[in-house]
């Protein structure tokens, strides 16, 4: 079969996990996986021909010019350099943009690399040492998110994903008419198979096979973090991991002598957005943006769900898995499994970088078992969504990074006193496992939503033992914080 020489193809991928602590800094890891990806392609000379070097945002250290520093290490002189913002969708956005520019004839070869050394940072802190890596940004730039939290979220300490995602989980559970016990049991059944995939993955951070009960039942080493989530069912962030991918034009792959069975094609992908604030979501327990992105990606790729041989569904929290499955009409217990890596709680969740790992793992799967595979990404508070179909068969329509859907937000009311109705909630737990406060999102009689804290220990205990969604409550203001009672 003849393939257009401008067709972009993935020719080299690499993943690397560092277990000895302390480990190397991110720049060392970027260089390592870039060279490993070139070696994987069987074309080490491709690094000298890179037109673009793109780096996924790293939480571990802020460099003065990350892509330029990596280019120096590789002795490359790319015309294009990019450094992403914070988001679990960033790797696919970079890969998609590179593929589009290759197809347009604007470049021939692009490298996308990402790395985190958060486990090393933690080890150094515990040893009383300061991180002193190379080329620091001076002054240190602000955190790389595209949009900071809403002031009402900040006032109510609702900015950690372990709490925002848990609130959406409780809203979904109530809308699905599941009991607390049914949700917990289903979460365990859905995620336990992922531990088996991680156990077989040499790059996975946690390689223990766990039973459903071991994942969801709180214990001394499996504390609650944001009720109803336990530590073993949420992404593990503090890892030392890196990944890289090299995309080139098919014509260059031919000239470099890259074997046909090494090449994997991006057949189609799509991006969509839900609201940025949890309280602003029209339906906090579901994701119309996921459904829109999935439909468009499948349409562009010219394939359907049943055509996929493998999937990697972004798994930072159970609500992300469940929402994606609902959006695609996929059984969460589908025999194909939900991950090719083991997922963020077990393979590792290196900040914004995970999708680069899942894409690399998917490329490996497709090389071994030719066909089509799906890789999804999630960014911020279940806000940003990418769906990408990778294949050993060229074809489809690439698409671009423009959102195919953008949700209309519900207004957020910062300060409120009066009656309200619980929409979703969680209970924040400290590192000792003790409940610290409840956090509520509530519908207001006049429209809009408000946040509130639960402070009374009895009400917090009740929140963890019975369904509160739909309950009539009363809010009173205590400075910038609303307090809920009933």
Q: Estimate the global geometry from the Cα principal axes.
A: globular
Main β sheet profile:
5 strands, mixed
- Give the percentage of residues in beta strands: 15-25%
User: What is the end-to-end distance?
Assistant: 69 Å
Strand order of the largest sheet: 1-7-4-2-3
Q: What portion of residues is helical? A: 25-40%
Q: Which secondary-structure class do the elements indicate?
A: alpha+beta
What does this structure look like?
This protein has helices at residues 26-41, 66-74, 90-103, 118-126, 151-155, 161-175, 180-199, 212-216, 250-256, 288-301, 318-328, 354-368, 457-463; strands at residues 8-17, 52-55, 80-83, 109-117, 224-226, 229-230, 240-249, 265-273, 308-312, 372-379, 384-391, 403-406, 418-429, 435-443, 449-454, 472-478, 481-485. With 486 residues, it is α+β, with helices and mostly antiparallel strands. The strands form four sheets. A five-stranded mixed sheet has the order 1-7-4-2-3, with helices on both faces. The mean pLDDT is 97.
Main traits of this protein?
single chain, 486 residues, alpha+beta, five-stranded mixed sheet, 13 helices, 30% helix, 24% strand
Topology:
Layout: E1 8-17, H1 26-41, E2 52-55, H2 66-74, E3 80-83, H3 90-103, E4 109-117, H4 118-126, H5 151-155, H6 161-175, H7 180-199, H8 212-216, E5 224-226, E6 229-230, E7 240-249, H9 250-256, E8 265-273, H10 288-301, E9 308-312, H11 318-328, H12 354-368, E10 372-379, E11 384-391, E12 403-406, E13 418-429, E14 435-443, E15 449-454, H13 457-463, E16 472-478, E17 481-485
Helix pairs in contact: 1-2, 10-11
